[in-house]
Amino acid sequence: MMTTEKTKITVQVVVNTTMKKAWDSWNNPKHIVNWCFASPDWHCPKSENDLQPGGNFVSRMEAKDGSFGFDFGGVYQEVENQKFISYIMDDGRGVSIEFSETADGILVKETFEAEATNPVEMQRTGWQAIMDNYKTYTESL
């Protein structure tokens, strides 16, 4: 039997904030709409989040000019308050996010299964851009 291992990509940031603020900014829809997009010509006009195992989430990502948009969503598998989240995206790929304290701030590390359509480096760059937006926004709170 042949096993196909999925490519996993990891992106991360260290946020100069408290664990409570880092967690809240990552999970609260009122904050998510301020950072969940990969470039300045996009935005996230709507977000919903039921942060519990079996709970659903969805964030609407749209080009500001209205030319394209999509819902990014999934179902939570594990949630350990202020430590760990895992979920399955609507397309079946897995994601995990770890929150840990370091001497420089809160390390947020996200690992996701790559999709087969776009190059791995393009996916890494896009997810890292979102992570960088999260850092910038959260540090401004």
Automatic annotation (TrEMBL):
What are the Activator of Hsp90 ATPase homologue 1/2-like C-terminal domain coordinates in residue numbering? 17-137
User: Would you indicate the residue range of the signal peptide?
Assistant: none
CDD domains from the xrefs? SRPBCC_CalC_Aha1-like_4
UniProt xrefs under SUPFAM superfamilies: Bet v1-like (SSF55961)
Annotated InterPro entries: ASHA1/2-like_C (IPR013538), START-like_dom_sf (IPR023393)
Identify its protein family: Belongs to the AHA1 family.
Task: Supply the name of the protein.
Answer: SRPBCC family protein
